[in-house]
Specification:
This protein has 365 residues and is an alpha/beta fold. It contains 11 helices and 8 strands. Helices cover 40% and strands 9% of the residues. Helix 1 crosses helix 9 and helix 7 packs parallel to helix 9 (232-255). Residues 1-24 form the signal peptide.
Amino acid sequence: MASLYIHSLLKLAFLCSFWPIITPLSLNYPAVFNFGDSNSDTGGLVAGKAFPLTRFCDGRLIIDFLMEAMELPYMNPYLESVGSPSFQTGCNFATGGATVQPANAASTNPFSFNLQLSQFFRFKNRALSLLSKDKELEKYLPAEDYFRKALYMFDIGQNDLDGALYSSASEKQVLDLVSKLMSDLTYGMKRLYDAGARNFWVHNTGPLGCLPRIIATFGKNRSNLDEQGCIVSHNRAATVFNQKLRDICLQFLAQSPEANITYVDIYSIKLNLISNYSLHGFQPPLAACCGYGGPPLNFDTRIPCGVSKDLNGTIAAANPCNNTAEYINWDGNHYTEAANRFVVDQILTGNYSDSPHLVTSPFVN
């Protein structure tokens, strides 16, 4: 037992020594399986709950641009059944509003991380069963070896933090929540690894406190704001979440000899974009493109993007701006296609990705 523990520590130290290396990312995978929330939902919520949006954006999401970089088709959602969708190169289990914590009766979305995992295993078992009977179905379903060679992507946790902070959770309660979220994520990754998954791609969470909806709700007291105009408590919670997320990625590597993990620092990319918006060709970053109310936030909780409503006898409408390519925020909660493109361009440089390579070593078997 002691020798196994020492082996794990040595491997962990070895892997840490490789993480500072920065190289442009090369993405070469036959398939992708994605778990997440609205940041990577490519139609799951519209298929599962008839929600009137296929993407929470004015165009492409981060995951869409990443699929382009891999020269793979855009991902079809697991719940989509209309139009004979192809799942040959993977499947997307993400749905808007999803949480890491299991959903309960009060949840707005039943498709939490544990259910997404169950959907994946159902998908895999069913696909392999069908392929064993008819190889022609490889035109529509992943081949058996694709499941081992595939990239398993994770972008989830923001809604858990958002919900806790909205309910005025104390700092200790948030820390306790983060610990629980890490346990759930580790368990899920372990299940996938035990089933043959080897390549993991993990996004940390963005600067939650810089979303117009959050600022409109918690920013009435200026002492809650940082120099960028973002909510301090929310960004602090996101930072703690991200630190713990990176820790579990390292621990998972130390305990999983064949695993490869790329940890992507979405937080730093987005905060850099918000802090230096004019250098990157954007307008002031804290205003929603599709919203109501005008500067500085152009966001009103009563009127979501695309909705018209009678406010005290006057029809108010939250319509899209004319120059979406100059905006960072789309609807008060999500980023524009232009911002998502910027994020992926930064990801692909390798400057914001920790990706230790498992090489021949006396400590790595």
